Amino acid sequence: MSWKLLLNHAYVPYSKQAEACIVESTNGLFYGGVRIENISYPLTIPAVQAACAICLSEGEVPAKLYVPHSNLDQLHFWSNEFDAQIVETNTPPIDKLEDLSCKPASNFDELERLETLLDAAITPNSDFPVSALLFFKDGYFEGVNIEVSEWSEGICAERVALAKAIAAGIQKFDTLAVHTRKGEVSSPCGACRQVIAELLPYHTIKLHHSDGTLSEHLSVDLLPFSFKSEALNK
Ligand code: THU
Prior knowledge:
Helix content is 24%, strand content 21%. By secondary structure, the protein is α+β, with helices and mostly antiparallel strands.
């Protein structure tokens, strides 16, 4: 097994430099992450951050970081954070990756699922759990926000859901649903709006507010006059 399969899922239209990482948890479960670039370059999600955040969002703790080479973005931060061993290899355990896509049951209640999912958020700094469900044609991916010792290395619920889907090779999405229990309203942050604008440009974003109400927005309306440039053409 080579890295090719996972590298092919990376979203790297600007650099064309695909990156992938596999995290093995302390319980021996495997999670893949790929690099997800953004037209605003600093919003790019490095593969190691994606893989570790995915692992943590599943209630697991990173123990080993499998990488194709040791100069991946953020590798040492995440390795130090969890005292995780770095394993440089050309034969990654791709066949062992968890399938994180979910299928809605016939009695699926979106808000109920979002509410339950809040318990999986890791929010030692903010105590502000957020949950997200990203729907695609065959089901959905779940996301929660993950905070670590360094504030700026944490990642929002919306982007964890996107990181799971893209690592799984899904790039076409339907709707994205978001929920917070504590916010006066549930509303994606500016960084998520920029990422959503690129990956779900004309999609419905469903915001389940803490008072039980729901508002639906077209993603393009959540970030009017957004940053775009032909100069950064893919
Ligand atoms: N957060 C999200 O997960 N999504 C958003 O769109 C808003 C912010 C998280 C990030 C951080 O863990 C906490 O909420 C406070 O910013």
